[in-house]
Every structure is written in C-alpha cells, then in structure tokens.
Amino acid sequence: MAGKYFDEWQIGETITHEIRRTVTETDNLLFTTMTHNPQPLHLDIEAAKASEFGQILVNGTFTFSLMVGLSVGDTTLGTLVANLGYDKLVMPKPVFIGDTLRAETEVIGLKESKSRPGSGIVTFLHRCINQRGEIVCQCERAALIKGKAA
C-alpha cells in the first residue's frame, strides 16, 4: 500500500509524483469518444487547424482525470474511504497531443472526521504540469482517509 493514513499527513507537505505520461492521439480519441463528447476541437483535425490553437486540443476532462490518477499511488492508494469532491478546477493552458504531463500534490487542509472517529478529511491541491513547466490543470480534492488505527 502506497497511500498514507490521515494521521501521517501534514499541511504544506508536497509530493512530486514520479510517473509522467506523454499524451497520445489514441488517448484523446478514445477518452473523447467514450465520454460522448462531440467537440470538433478534440476530434476534427480540420476544425482544430482553423481554430486559434491550430491543432487538436486534448480533452480537458482527460487531463483532469490523468492528473488525479497520477497522484493516487502516492496519496490515497489503500487508505481512501471516499473522494468527497473536487473544487476550484482550472485549466490555465491547453494540452496538445505529444505533451508530457506530470503531477504535484500539496496538502492544504486536514480535518478530523465527525462521523468516522480516527479518520479524517485531507484536502489536496493537485497540479498538472507540462514539459515546459506550465500548469495545465489544477484542482482541490477533498478525500476521506482512514486513520492508522481505523
């Protein structure tokens, strides 16, 4: 188990996740079609070329999902009770096919659970960063995490 228990987290703790992922055309095409998203910017090379971006734009919900997925092994794997919500999701820069993405996580909140003694809510700030060092996605995630004794 790689995740940490509630009592092991500290506010301000930051993790640079080791796994990186280069986004492929297949990633974008499969995710976009699996989620029934007909946006031409994700699927139609000619429409994308005519846009201000000049190329296919990677589906933002793929970027968000990848960012969270890259964090799981170091944060909540085996210790998660439930994700309680995602907040303040922003995508300040576009992601293109061929971009290599990585993630960082900072603990910004800790609160003991009132309904589950020994467990608590950890609020993570996740950041997804491309190969140019630009933040392409960011959000806060509240997760109910088991306590070590729970």
From TrEMBL:
Transmembrane regions: none
Sequence ranges assigned to domain MaoC-like in this UniProt record: 10-122
Superkingdom of the organism of origin: Bacteria
Pfam families linked: MaoC_dehydratas
This protein's name: MaoC family dehydratase
Source organism of the structure: Sphingopyxis soli
